[in-house]
Design goal:
601 residues; 15% strand; globular; binds thiamine diphosphate; binds magnesium ion
Length: 601
């Protein structure tokens, strides 16, 4: 049987377990579209190329292996670059397959001709052109291998469209098998050193990050914390893995208790998480110089970033934890410490309750996320997009035993706007599960047109908009830095996103009062078509985000922020009272929220 090269693309990805392909049409890739009919691949065609990449990325998160986006090339590729870069900076395995101009027409002024490799290379682990139709399966297999092994990331294969449109004999093509995941495990000496560090520790904490998600370490992680009694925090992408909330002692999203716990610990275990902004670069006031730090990471170059650490172990987290779980560890009793950590979080949650249950109008952001969290099912996936809106949501959203919380702007790039497409992809993949997006109003704008995609494919996602009528976090920064009367360019006003979604044929709710919230959310969750719950929230309460961001600026030496750090705090540190300075700084970080709480009590 003679088939097009495009069919080889579809057949190879199908053999590798890919059921959904995200794309936007272009003449270069129509042979692959045609092949999707034969190979019964679920082709979702989007309204923007970045959306297609974000969709594939969301499935990589949920299925924990590389998923695929198909781009035509030229402007389709340049439009997709931010999303590819987001995958790169968040270490997400992803295979980007692109068409490209035929090489006979290269550099002659033909439409959409460009040097694609040049723009995609900085944001991919591996990028190549496949010139031979028979080698299409081999190149795709190599792209999967690079995407998944070692530190995961996006890879890129481009295939000129005359190659995609060349006919070959199906039987003359050989298909490689899917590359197996390899699991390097830390060396014996290092594991023994880690055991002795654990045995000496009185106040250890473990922070698990994306390495836990990608290696699928949830069972090993639970065994490890049960065996050792170490309090655990899930950070960044680890929140997306299924995990029982009661096993997590210190909630990453509730800034103050988490920061205090880390500051008080005598041993910090970094389990597949980076020493980046998420944990204050490992520096004061988050960390102290007296603490011991051990880090397990798949990527050896990552270890010692931003500060030297005491023990680095290169390994896949699942395999390394499994090895540790088999070793004898005689821990000191950590019951008191464990209780102290959990109590801190519980006490803070109790402090926040007046806000979470507040009946004020406009609606308090924490009331919105608390009501939403109370309606989540065990298998629910909650996608978070925005800025302040994410930080508020993280104060209430918990990991779920069969679901998860996906922060759409993961990684250092922090691009907002991935939420709608990511939610659509998850709902397409898991139609029976509850899939919800909580998004800032500004961020929702990027994905708005994809509500049409959700309607076209009948994918009933529920979008909940934290509508503070503006680019909240940048507005906060502007006001804080330049003054209240210098606000410009950050207000969006009251936009009826619910009506726009209704205009596409979806369900809309507009909520202004707290008692309308739950009924509106329940209606949206039950309506069976794409829904938008547009909630006007109070723009005045400040999430802990602004202060944290400012502090990080200061820590990394942004001179213009230095005058924002109170002098007494600098003095405390200068005379060696680091611990006291840390405690005061943490309180200062939290102070606006704190002041607001005081007003309520
Ligand atoms: C793609 C992209 N554009 C711009 C920014 C800069 N930025 C960071 S936060 C923010 C405001 C987000 O507003 P919104 O989504 O409404 O969330 P809010 O903070 O108001 O809850 C902006 C514009 C970014 N991070 N990514
Ligand atoms: Mg906003």
């Amino acid at each position: 049987m003679k088939i097009y090269g495009g069919r080889l693309v579809a057949r190879t990805i199908k053999r590798f377990g890919v059921r959904h392909l995200f794309s936007l049409p272009g003449h270069q890739i129509l042979s692959v579209y045609d092949a999707c009919l034969n190979e019964t691949i679920d082709l979702i065609s989007t309204r923007h190329e970045a959306s297609a990449v974000f969709m594939a990325q969301a499935l990589s998160f949920a299925e924990r292996e590389a998923r695929v986006v198909l781009l035509a090339g030229g402007p389709e590729l340049t439009n997709a670059l931010t999303a590819i870069a987001q995958a790169y900076y968040s270490n997400t395995p992803l295979v980007v397959i692109s068409g490209t101009n035929t090489f006979k027409k290269r550099d002659k002024g033909f439409p959409q001709d460009m040097d694609q490799l040049q723009v995609v290379r900085p944001f991919t682990k591996w990028a190549r052109t496949c010139h031979d139709v028979y080698r299409i399966p081999e190149y795709i297999a190599t792209a999967f291998r690079y995407a998944a092994r070692g530190r995961p990331g996006p890879t890129y294969v481009e295939i000129p469209y005359d190659v995609l449109e060349t006919k070959v004999d199906f039987n003359a093509v050989s298909f490689p098998t899917k590359p197996k995941q390899l699991r390097p495990c830390g060396d014996k000496d290092s594991l023994e050193t880690l055991v002795s560090m654990l045995e000496k520790a009185r106040r250890p904490v473990a922070i698990a990050g994306s390495g836990a998600l990608w290696s699928g370490a949830e069972a090993e992680l639970q065994t490890f914390i049960e065996k050792t009694g170490i309090p655990l925090t899930l950070a960044s992408a680890a929140l997306a893995m299924p995990f029982p909330a009661q096993k997590v002692s210190s909630n990453f999203g509730i800034i103050r208790p988490f920061r205090e716990t880390v500051a008080e610990a005598d041993l910090i275990l970094l389990l597949g998480t980076r020493m980046n902004f998420g944990i204050g670069f490992g520096q004061a006031p988050f960390f102290t110089s007296a603490q011991k730090i051990a880090q397990i990471d798949i990527h050896p170059e990552e270890i010692d970033t931003n500060r030297p650490i005491d023990l680095g172990i290169t390994g896949d987290l699942k395999a390394t934890l499994a090895a540790l779980n088999d070793m004898h560890i005689s821990m000191k009793s950590l019951a008191g410490w464990h209780q102290q950590v959990s109590q801190k979080t519980r006490a803070y949650e109790a402090e926040l309750r007046p806000l979470a249950e507040s009946n004020t109008c406009p609606i308090h952001p924490l009331r919105l996320v608390s009501d939403l969290e109370s309606l989540r099912s065990d298998d629910s996936f909650l996608v978070l997009d925005g800025a302040n809106s994410i930080l508020w949501a993280l104060m209430a959203a918990k990991p779920h035993p069969e679901g998860g919380v996906l922060i759409s702007s993961l990684g250092e790039l922090q691009a907002i706007g991935a939420g709608v497409p990511q939610t659509i992809a998850l709902k397409r993949r898991f139609p029976q599960r509850q899939i919800i997006l909580h998004t800032g109003d500004g961020s929702f704008g990027y994905g708005l047109v994809e509500m049409e995609t959700a309607l076209r494919y009948n994918i009933p996602i529920v979008v909940v908009i934290h509508n503070d009528q503006g680019w909240g976090m940048t507005r906060d920064m502007q006001i804080d830095f330049f003054g209240k009367d210098r606000e410009i360019g950050n207000q969006l006003g009251v936009v009826r996103y619910d009506r726009l979604v209704e205009g596409f044929g979806g369900h809309g709710e507009f909520v202004q009062k707290p008692d309308e919230l739950k009924p509106a959310l329940e209606r949206a969750l039950g309506v069976g078509k794409p829904a938008c719950v547009n909630v006007l929230v109070d723009p005045l309460p400040k999430s802990p985000g602004l202060k944290t961001f400012m502090l990080m600026e200061v820590m990394l030496g942004k001179e213009t922020y230095l005058d924002r750090i109170p002098l007494w705090m600098k003095k405390l540190r200068a005379v060696g009272l680091e611990g006291l300075a840390t405690r005061m700084m943490l309180q200062n970080l939290d102070h606006r929220l704190h002041n607001e709480l005081k007003g309520k009590q």
